[in-house]
Specification:
This protein has 65 residues and is an alpha+beta fold. The protein is built from one helix and two strands. Strands 1-2 form a two-stranded parallel sheet.
Length: 65
């Protein structure tokens, strides 16, 4: 019922930006670290993340928590 955001390993960097799994957003390790630091600093409920679908992908409905 949501989207998971996680780092990926260097051997998968060439696949970034392509759909690969059910609801996961894979990130470069450096970008995932920045996101982790931002969420740690501001808090989970004070951090807004906007995910824009790739061309041809459908938008996932917004989930308010």
């Amino acid at each position: 019922g949501g989207i998971w955001i996680h780092a990926t390993t260097p051997n998968h960097y060439d696949e970034l930006g392509q759909p690969a799994s059910a609801g996961c957003v894979r990130m470069h390790l450096d970008d995932a670290k920045i996101l982790y630091d931002l969420v740690s600093y501001y808090g989970l409920y004070e951090t807004a993340i906007t995910i824009i679908p790739a061309v041809g992908e459908t938008q996932v409905p917004v989930k308010n928590t």
